[in-house]
Amino acid sequence: MQYRRLGSSGLRISALSFGAWVTFGAQIGRDTARELIAAAWDHGVNFFDNAEGYANGEAERVMGEAIAQLKLPRDGYCVSSKVFFGAEEEPRPTQRGLSRKHVTEACHAALRRLRVDYLDLYFCHRPDPDAPVEETVWAMDTLIRQGKVLYWGTSEWPAALIREAHKIARARHLHAPTMEQPQYNLLHRERVELEYAPLYAELGLGTTIWSPLASGLLTGKYRGGFDGGDRLGHADKEWLRRIAVGDSGQRRIERVTAFVELAAELGVAPASLAIAWCLRNPHVSTAILGASRVEQLLQNLAAVDVKLDDAAWQRVEAVTA
């Protein structure tokens, strides 16, 4: 495993991390979840990602239970939560968003579900147009000073709002956001490579990227359609198919097909190749993996061992451009 600093902070996290989105508390059982966390830990993963909104909080309960059963040393791993969407099926106004009230209460609830005394990373899961950025910055700073959070950050915030949060923090001598969690993969690159480009040096921004496989699209398993039993084939995942396929539809599938064929020519599994490509970006602090089977996770973890010359990487860029 490789380890990278989280932006300009002193925290070193595994280049590949493991997340609970979509699978924990919904798609897989508790035993499988425990086996996945154990496999990730055994291969050097030290960051486990979660959120209040994943399976309405159940994903955090499952992860907290698994980590407790495995007796992982608390000083050896990092765990995160995210706040915004709420943990209720139909949240009331004070049960979602980035108000001081919800940010605080969501943190306490995540601590209980994850069975920890503090969160290593705490993300604002989306911008909240109804909550002043200054209120959210103060709420996060308070939690850090109370020892309940170590680092806070954002997820899918526009660069202008991240800058605003930093400006407020500097002016008030508060803790500023350390990291951002954006989508980043061969088919979705603009925000990480263009919009955030000035922020890495300017603010010391780290990134914990999600969906390095475009929800499995880059594995090639959906080239024949979405009728199987995998993630995008589930009847209740139409919203996720829209995220993965986007508006380009058939053109995106054609790019994936060309990528899978090139991976075969290079002798690398498509999943490993796609994840390894993400890690070539020095501004990626960690790529969050999601898996429903141990063998699937192990193939993804093999991305750290992929070694190709510049000519091969240029071909990867060309077929997915």
Shape: globular
Give the oligomer, counting copies of the same chain as homo and different chains as hetero: single chain
Question: What is the count of DSSP helices, taking H or I runs of 4+ residues?
Answer: 12
Instruction: Give me the side-by-side strand order of the main sheet.
Output: 3-4-5-6-7-8-9-10
Largest sheet: 8 strands, parallel, barrel
Measured between the Cα atoms of the first and last residue, the distance is 29 Å
Class of secondary structure makeup? alpha/beta
The low-confidence parts are none
At the fold tier of CATH, the topology name is: TIM Barrel
What is the CATH class? Alpha Beta
Radius of gyration over all CA atoms, rounded: 19 Å
Assign the CATH superfamily.
Answer: NADP-dependent oxidoreductase domain
Let me know the average pLDDT: 93
Q: How do the helices and strands follow one another from N- to C-terminus?
A: EEEHEHEHEHEHEHHEHHHEHH
The total beta strand count reads 10
CATH architecture label name: Alpha-Beta Barrel
State the share of residues found in helices, binned by percent: 40-55%
How would you characterize the overall build of this protein?
This protein is of the alpha/beta class. It has a single domain, classed as Alpha-Beta Barrel (TIM Barrel), CATH 3.20.20.100. Helix content is 41%, strand content 13%. It contains twelve helices and ten strands. The protein has an eight-stranded parallel β-barrel with strand order 3-4-5-6-7-8-9-10, surrounded by four helices. The chain has a two-stranded antiparallel sheet with strand order 1-2. Helix 4 links the parallel strand 6 and strand 7. Helix 2 packs parallel to helix 3 (100-114). The radius of gyration is 19 Å and the shape is globular. The mean pLDDT is 93.
